Amino acid sequence: MEASKVRRGIGLVAHDAMKKDLIEWVLWNSELLMGNKFYCTGTTGTLILEALKEKHPGVEWDFTILKSGPLGGDQQMGSRIVDGQIDYLFFFTDPMTLQPHDTDVKALTRLAGVENIVFCCNRSTADHIISSPLFMDPDYERIHPDYSSYTKRFQNKPVVTEAVEAVDRRKKKRNKNFKIITG
User: Fold this and answer.
1) Buried (b) or exposed (e) across 90-107, using 16+ Cβ within 10 A?
2) Residue 15 exposed, middle or buried by CB count within 10 Å (0-12, 13-18, 19+)
3) Four-point Cα dihedral 125, 18, 92, 36, nearest 10
4) What element of type H or E holds 176?
């Protein structure tokens, strides 16, 4: 099968109860996914790559396998999102099981929203995303939000000067009290 003309950065993550579902989804859509760059959390990525190699033994897949999600892989995935390497995040979540690394999952979900990447957490949404004409559209680019007003919110404000002055006042007061105590 010819590799896609569009090369996307695709994140693949799945909670334990959803790994089989994500593997099946990737295999079902493997021809459409060929030629893309994949970032996966540890166990999920290892299993998906094994399945793809079995289905397409002659195809070279471009996979970066990160650490397991709870062992830092979620943060590594978030870093790739912030760095602009990931355009799509297919994160099959298990809605029935409390995750011990739930705060990491929420942070990853939040970053997907902040960076305005395509994000889905179940197979139905993934099916709609991959069947959208935009998935293969070489001219489609996501809108990159402008957060400059947020990142510059302390510009021209005396926060640093006030902090330095406050520390200087506390040190002077401490030194004065220390002299009184030590005589």
Assistant:
1) bbbbeeeeebebeebbee
2) buried
3) -90
4) helix 159-182
Query: Which residue is listed with tokens 């003309």?
Result: 5
Q: Is 31 in contact with 57 (CB distance < 8 Å)?
A: no
Respond yes or no: is residue 74 known to be catalytic: yes
Q: What is the pLDDT of residues 29-74, one digit of tens each?
A: 999 999 999 999 999 999 999 999 999 999 999 999 999 998 999 9
Local structure of residue 41 (DSSP, 8 states): -
The answer to whether the CB of 22 falls within 8 A of the CB of 14 is yes
Burial class (CB in 10 A: 0-12, 13-18, 19+), 37: middle
Structure token pair of residue 120 = 């889905």
For the beta carbon of residue 53, count every other beta carbon within 10 angstroms: 13
Q: Which of 62, 74, 83, 168 is catalytic?
A: 74
Prediction pTM value: 0.85
